[in-house]
Specification:
By secondary structure, the protein is mostly helical. The protein has two domains: 70 residues; 37 residues, no CATH class. 69% of the residues lie in helices and 0% in strands. The chain contains seven helices and no strands. Helix 5 runs antiparallel to helix 6 and helix 6 packs across helix 7. The longest helix has 28 residues. The radius of gyration is 19 Å and the shape is elongated. This is Retrotrans_gag domain-containing protein.
Length: 134
């Protein structure tokens, strides 16, 4: 019987594989009644941490109150959209070069913006090292 782990750091694109499957297995095995969407939503919410919690809190209230399946679908879409945005930023970062008319300050500001978009989970020290490699 697997424990339901929290979601520290970056949630995967397939949110249901990582989190929902484990939650369902855990509470099915304990024979928790499946009658209450509200209870499953509350259990899910209690296990969220970091970025997954931020994504949850950014959802519309109607989605949070509409039921467990709606919540799972919304969280999966949020994870996929965020992942896609990070991939696009990483591609931009790979091609990023200082333009002739661009000042050094403008270049550094844009570099930091792209670096944060491509890897939002990194702390300041790692971001500085990453940016210096460009």
């Amino acid at each position: 019987l697997r424990d339901v782990k929290g979601t520290p750091g970056r949630p995967p694109t397939r949110w249901s594989v990582f989190f929902v499957k484990t939650l369902n297995e855990r509470y099915d095995a304990l024979r928790v009644p499946q009658g209450s969407d509200g209870e499953l939503c509350a259990l899910s919410r209690s296990k969220l941490e970091g970025r997954a919690l931020s994504q949850y809190e950014a959802l519309l209230r109607e989605i949070m109150e509409d039921g467990y399946d709606t919540l799972v679908n919304a969280m999966e879409k949020a994870c996929q959209a965020e992942h896609f945005s990070e991939v696009l930023a990483l591609e931009e970062l790979k091609k990023f070069v200082k333009r002739e008319e661009q000042s050094v300050v403008e270049f550094c500001v844009e570099l930091e913006r792209l670096t944060r978009r491509s890897s939002p989970e990194l702390d300041e020290a790692v971001l500085a090292i990453f940016a210096s490699s460009v």
